[in-house]
Every structure is written in structure tokens, then in C-alpha cells.
Amino acid sequence: MLIFVLVAMAVASTPPETDVLAQLQAGKVLCSNPDAGTKTCSTIDTFSKSADGTIIDVGEILISPDQPVTLEVSTTVQIESGTICGMMALGDLEKGQVRVNGTLLPPERNAAVMNKLVEKLKPLAGRKVCEALRLQDGQLMKYGQVERIDINLPGKPVRWVIKDDGYKVAPR
């Protein structure tokens, strides 16, 4: 009987995979396309709640699948029922930080790279983007949709990982 109670307590204390706020409170980050062997992700989203209740998503994204170049951007998001929605403001994008092998580019070089990236990504600025988390065949998946773009984006596997567990955004 005691074992049953302990198992029930353990299960009850484990937040559901699709509960973003519970995962945030548990200190986890969302790793897209996780590779447990190399502890790499194509994107890591770190969510934090400010004093006024606003939720900020700091996303680090692998720019090229073959090179260790990443872009970090912060934006305000809303979370409802396993769906994360936000609107990338042009100003958020312009404040992006580029890293090579985990090292920030010097300010003048970052500005030059960001100018090129902003021009390429400008059409997405001001559009609402939503990503829904769903369990599919036992795998947590993230499905995205961009406002005014009528394409069903393919799902990608994701995994909640402990922030200090050594995962990083990098090529495999």
C-alpha cells in the first residue's frame, strides 16, 4: 500500500509535458529536436515570468544546421492550454544576439550580421506565431502556425530539460 501511495505522489508531482507554466516553475527549458547523446537542440526556449506576470521567451536558435552559429531573441509570449503565442516585434529582432561556438560576436560584427538577418526575417515581424505542444505516440511534439501564412508547418520533437543539464544549441 505504501508503494502505491509513493508512486501516486511521484506521478502527481510530475507536471504534464504540455503544461508550460508547470515546466517553467520546475526550472526546465524547452529543447527542440533534442539529441540526448550529444545534448544538443536546434532551439532552446527559456521562459521566465516577470514581477508583473508577463512571460518572456528567450529563444536561442541554430541558424545553420551545419555551423555552430546561433541567434538569441527575447519576446513576450502568452501561454494557454499548451499553446505558446507571441508576436515578434521588429525591435525584439533588432536586439538579437549572434553567437559562434557559444561566444557572442563583438558589438560591431553583431550589428552587421543582425542587419542582414533583420532584412531576411522582417516579413515575420508583427505576425502572431503560435506553437502548440501535443503528445503524439508518446513523443512531445511542437506544431507552429504563423498568422497570415496558410501553411501547416511540420511538427518537431521537443523535450523539457533541466536548465543546468548541459544541453546547448549546436549542430549534431
Task: Please explain how this structure is put together.
The chain is of the alpha+beta class and 172 residues long. It has one domain (2-164). It has four helices and twelve strands. It has helices at 2-13, 20-25, 90-94, 107-121; strands spanning 28-32, 40-41, 43-49, 55-64, 67-80, 83-87, 97-100, 103-104, 128-136, 139-146, 156-162, 168-169. It has an eight-stranded antiparallel β-barrel. Strands 2-12 form a two-stranded parallel ribbon. A hairpin with a 2-residue loop joins strand 5 (67-80) and strand 6. The longest helix is centred in the middle third of the chain and has 15 residues, at 107-121. The radius of gyration is 17 Å and the shape is globular.
List keywords for this structure.
alpha+beta; two-stranded parallel sheet; globular; disordered N terminus
Would you spell out the secondary-structure blueprint of this structure?
Blueprint: H1 2-13, H2 20-25, E1 28-32, E2 40-41, E3 43-49, E4 55-64, E5 67-80, E6 83-87, H3 90-94, E7 97-100, E8 103-104, H4 107-121, E9 128-136, E10 139-146, E11 156-162, E12 168-169
Parallel strand pairs: 2-12
Antiparallel strand pairs: 1-3, 1-11, 3-4, 4-5, 5-6, 5-7, 6-9, 7-8, 9-10, 10-11
